[in-house]
Amino acid sequence: MAPMDPADRTDPADEPPRPAPLLIACALGIEQFALRSGHRKEAPGPVTVLRTGMGPKAAATAVRQALAHGGPAPDAAVIASGFCAGLVPGMHPGDLIVADETRGPHGTSACTGVELLAKALDRVVPGRTVHTGPLLGSAHVVRGPERARLAATGAIAVDMESAATLGSALRAGPRPVAAVRVVVDAPEHELVRIGTLRGGISAFRVLRAVLPAFFEWHRSSLLPRR
Fold first, then answer.
1. How far apart are CA 137 and CA 159, in angstroms?
2. Which contiguous run of DSSP H or E holds residue 154?
3. Which of 6, 179, 208, 210 has the fewest CB atoms within 10 Å, i.e. the most exposed one?
4. Which residues contact 30 (CB under 8 A, 6 or more apart)?
5. What are the pLDDT digits (tens) for 47-90?
């Protein structure tokens, strides 16, 4: 057999870098179904939609395991997504929340590419209001008067998993992180009121439509930083 021409050999350094994966973490089966059934053709790299289970402890544990060495996505960018409760009067089911930071009992996590993500969502889900601000973590479902108390802290929305998800992700190593939630419960549209089903369907449809914006954010996060 003739020796291989050195010019035909592939230098590993010349191969394109493997795209970093994207991990989208959500708590509920209905959220996972919406995110999995959305448009996925534009993903710049591997995408995992992880169902963590409800509550901050479950979210933190599931994300830590997913990002651990030997896990499915140790170097992934992370987005916490799903439904949430809006805190600001005038919000409606189907409104979008893009966190600029998440706040939880274990600290605050700053989010990456907030403005880019908000603009991308405005394009892919036209007609829906996109709110940007702090997203608060809670260990329980927030109702009634507690909503006003939490709004007074400056937070615009609350959910049970986002703060724990991003905190766990950043403890596993530096990476782009974001939190995008769809309002299903708002001050004038609480879940216990008539119209809940219609609001839930509206929120589901919005969540199902957000993936192209997530992929645009992910693609931007892969670019070299100057």
1. 5
2. none
3. 6
4. 204
5. 999 999 999 999 999 999 999 977 667 889 999 999 999 999 99
Query: Which position has the token pair 């400056």?
Result: 154
Q: CB neighbours of 212 closer than 8 A, spacing ≥ 6?
A: 39, 42, 120, 124
Classify residue 99 by its DSSP letter: E
Report how far residue 101's alpha carbon sits from residue 139's, in angstroms, rounded to the nearest whole number: 18
Cβ atoms < 10 Å from Cβ of 150:
18
The SS3 call for residue 175 is coil
Rounded to whole angstroms, the Cα distance separating 168 from 32 reads 19
The C-alpha angle 196, 181, 78, rounded to 5 degrees, equals: 150
As a dihedral over the C-alpha atoms of residue 172, residue 36, residue 112, residue 42, rounded to 10 degrees, the angle is 120
Nearest to 34 by CA among 51, 22, 59: 51
Q: What is the pTM of this model?
A: 0.85
